[in-house]
Structures are given as C-alpha cells and as structure tokens.
Amino acid sequence: MSEPRPDGNGRSPRTRVPRVGEVVRTSWVTPHMVRVVLGGPGLAGFPDGEFTDRYVKLLFPPAGAPYGAPFDMEQVRADHPKDHWPVARTYTVRVWDGAAGELTIDFVHHGDEGLAGPWAAAARPGDRIQFVGPGGGYAPRPDADWHLLAADEAALPAVAATLDRLPSGARALVFLEVADSTEEHPDLAAVGPGVELRWLHRGGAEPGMALVDAVRAARLPAGNGHVFVHGEAHAVRELRRHLRAERGLDPAWTSISGYWRRGDDEDRWQSTKREWNAAIEAEETVAGQ
Question: How far apart are the first and last CA of the chain?
Fold first, then answer.
C-alpha cells in the first residue's frame, strides 16, 4: 500500500506518508458501533482539512504476520509473501481534535465478521495501527439553500461530521438508515433548528431499501440543494438515478457514491468500483440523449 489506490471518485488520500496512531480509549456508541480514539506522536501534523467526508486507510497486518506497526511497506513486500502483507480498510474520520491530537473513528461491528470491526472491539489503550490519509472530496456548500444527507451506518460518521459543520439555522433534510432503534446515534439526539432528521429502521429488508423509499417520497425545498448520498452501492445507484434523472438535480451539486456493496468485501468492491461508476455514468449519458 505504498501507493494507495484512489477510490471510485478518483480521490486519493492527500498524504501517502504512513502514520501510526495509538489507541487512547474506546467506547460503544451503539450495540453495533464501537468508537476508537487514536492519539500519540504519530498524529503530529495531521491536517485539519476542509472535507467532512475525510477518510483514512487503516493498514492491518494479517493474523500471524511476524511484524506490527510501525512497519515499512516496501520492506514488508520484499521480506514476506503476499499473504503476510497488510490489508487496507477505509474509514471515515468522525472527529479530528487538533488541540488534543486525537483522531476519532467509528467502526461498524458484526461480531467476528470482517477485519476492522473485530480489531476495534478488541482494541485497548496502547495498541497501535498504521494508516495513510486523509483523503476526501465533500463539504457542505455554504451557498446552498438547503442540504440533503442520506446514508446508512457506513457513511453515518460523515453525515455527523457534516452536521457539525453546518452553520446555525442551515436547512437540511437528513435520512439515516440503521438496523433498528438501538442503532440510533446519541451524537445526533440534538440537531440544529433547521435540520429535519429521520431515522429509518431496515428490520429484515435489504440494506438501503428504506433509504431509497424515504428519499423518493421526500418533498425537496425550492432553490439550490447540495446533496450527499452514500451507503450500499445498489441503493445509492437507485438514488443517483432518481435525484439526477427524475428530480433533475445538477450533478455538480451532488456527491453520490457507494461506500460498500452487499456481497463484497472492501477489496472486491474497491477493485470494481471504478467500472461500476463508469457503467452508471454511461447509463445516464444514454438516458440524457
């Protein structure tokens, strides 16, 4: 990962110099989301960027790897077989507190499933994780008349960071899909006076379907709206078609992308995301002719 791949929007982490964060503390935000706060001297100079969807790529040595953070990626590649190379996982920065030198990241946790979630659940103060970043590409436009934010758990930290950034009184429609009422974030129990936040509970439905239905049914305000829609790729694809083709929203005022795709791990999704997005753009071109 010495040359991190850009994501499907062509956005690469702004800095490719690896950093090492040390776990300061952890807490459970909901039954299936654990918050990890990183600190330590390795975070010195971490940029306080303009984007609210800032992300980092965490580098996890596989189980049994004979090394840990900090490590030199080129040396790892030279000295170890590929199945011992670190695995990258992309996570949104929930908060960067420059004064305290602390980086907060929220992890969705599904028991032993996956890589990052189990690591976060087991993390203890003093544990170390190497990463590159941050990258990003979205921040709420100050000249927008209103904002639409729609996301599932994967993009919820970016939405929360965006709401922190909105000026007082800014108008925003927010739709957040989670499994059930226990997964509603206490961070968002109180929002600004211009924010209409609606929690959507998927229950046993396919991820993203409640989000699609809610946005389709929404009455959007007049004027120029700035849109942030991120989550499961199939649902995001439907919402992209709806908002751009059916609602006629200007693509320049929309940030719409799949953070993940059901049935795929991140490696598979990131390896096909560019082609997925290109196919969607081709469909939109044909539809617009």
Answer: 41
Residue type, 66: P
168: number of Cβ within 10 Å: 7
Pair of tokens at residue 182: 């226990």
**Among 96, 161, 148, CA closest to 256:** 148
For 255, the token pair is 């940030």
Q: What whole-number distance in Å separates Cα of residue 289 and Cα of residue 268?
A: 32
Query: What is the residue whose two structure tokens read 């975070």?
Result: 43
CA angle 231, 155, 165 (to 5 degrees): 135
Q: What is the mean pLDDT of each run of 10 residues along the chain (289 residues)?
A: 35 65 97 97 92 96 90 93 92 96 95 89 97 94 97 95 93 97 93 94 92 96 95 93 93 91 76 76 60
* 200, 180 contact by CB (below 8 A): no
Region at 248 (left for phi over 0; alpha for psi -120 to 50; beta for the rest): left
39 Cα distance to chain centroid: 20
User: Beta-strand (E) ranges in 152-247?
Assistant: 172-178, 195-201, 225-232
